[in-house]
Amino acid sequence: MDTLELNKDYWDERYKKHEIGWDIGYASPAIVAYATASIPKSATILIPGCGNAHETRALLFEGFTNLTLLDIAPTLVRKVQKQFDKTKYVRGVCQDFFLHTLQYDYILEQTFFCALHPSVREKYVEQMASLLRPGGTLAGLLFNKTFERKGPPFGGNIAEYQKLFNSLFDIVQMRPCADSIPQRQGSELFIELRKK
Question: C-alpha angle with apex 183: 39 to 4, nearest 5 degrees?
Fold first, then answer.
């Protein structure tokens, strides 16, 4: 599958047909644990490729007050906007990640990187850096495995990621994730990357 096929229509169709095998149905424990321990409640947080916003619900419950959800699929974003229309702490935006221009203190990565074609990974790193304020942090999960079938999801490994992120980020941590969900045990890395 090439980059042209992984467009707005592709992802919108997946949500319309409920073909969302990546959706685990609840917030990633590793991301919620990191956020509650390390991110100030008032920090500006972006969740790109937000999906069904499980992390957002969990972070709202924990008292976070400035969450922006970004996704390219209109059907999904309408659903998410309706879901959070009673709170002023969440903003849902339907836009291509690579066209987004606001800046944030933190960006949370959860099955977004792996949904993008590997040919745009350098562009992803550059865009992440541009969306973070000076000293801002990109944190979350990346797959530490190679998938047998053609993606998405697209996998990778720690050596590849270190080389990819090193030019624009200081790697605070990039380690096997200890609290992955059961079906992803041993196949995820937790990352905390600080913009240089």
Answer: 75
Nearest of 56, 131, 59 to residue 97 by alpha carbon: 131
Tens of pLDDT, residues 46-75: 999 999 999 999 999 999 999 999 999 999
CB atoms under 10 Å from CB of 18, counted, come to 8
Given the DSSP bridges, would you call strands 188-195 and 132-143 parallel, antiparallel or unpaired? antiparallel
- Number of folded domains in the chain? 1
Q: Domain containing 105: what range?
A: 8-195
Cβ atoms of 69 and 56 closer than 8 Å: yes
* SS3 label, residue 146: coil
Q: Are 28 and 110 in contact (CB under 8 A)?
A: yes
CATH of the domain at 45: 3.40.50.150
pTM of this prediction?
0.94
Residue 129 belongs to what H/E stretch?
Answer: helix 121-131
